[in-house]
Amino acid sequence: MKVLIVEDDGxxxxxxxxxxxxxxxxxxxxxxxxxxxxxxxxxGFDLAVVDVxxxxxxxxxxxxxxxxxxxxxxVIFLSALGSVEDKVAGLDAGGDDYLAKPFSxxxxxxxxxxxxxxxxxxxxxxVLAVGDLVVDTQSRRATRGGRRLDLxxxxxxxxxxxxxxxxxxxxxxxxxxxxxxYDFDTGTNLVESRVCHLREKVDKPFGTQLIKTVRGFxxxxx
Length: 222
Description:
Elements: E1 2-6, H1 10-22, E2 26-30, H2 33-42, E3 47-51, H3 59-68, E4 75-79, H4 84-92, E5 97-100, H5 105-123, E6 127-130, E7 133-136, E8 141-144, E9 147-148, H6 153-164, H7 172-180, H8 190-202, E10 211-214, E11 218-221
Parallel strand pairs: 1-2, 1-3, 3-4, 4-5
Antiparallel strand pairs: 6-7, 7-8, 8-9, 10-11
Helix pairs in contact: 2-3, 6-7, 6-8
């Protein structure tokens, strides 16, 4: 899971980031609304924690623009403004939860997990397909042209992740964070190796390439 932390106070940002990392999340941080918008619309996130009072673009404007750009992952607002009116404004702007400062990091993580569970129930699709490739995530069965594909667990997870991002280029870093769930080491060719093995099973026997390399960016299935 990957979380975007948008907070202009360095100490608070570091505190939140350490808590999420200790809980197994990958993280990205931004200190202003413009930088956060760029990240939110170009990288894949599962959740965002957004301070309301931000330089360049405030948190409410940021989330409104995120929603307009189809960045639909859950958002938790953080703010020193904790009135009912402030909370309603945050929810109306597209937020999913609102936590007043000072806050407990334990409560923040609990709310994050609750939103992620809800989002998973609402958006999870069990059967994914592109062309004649079909993956059933519940039965853990993958077929192409009606033929069963013999995939190792990590190969299945990699294929599932590519299919859930069908038509969208995903970087090696993003794949590492979502499939292997640890930070990317630029000195390893682990992703290239796994994609190569996956192509041997998914593409090579069928004559049509579905998994494509976008040089300098990453991989896409379409």
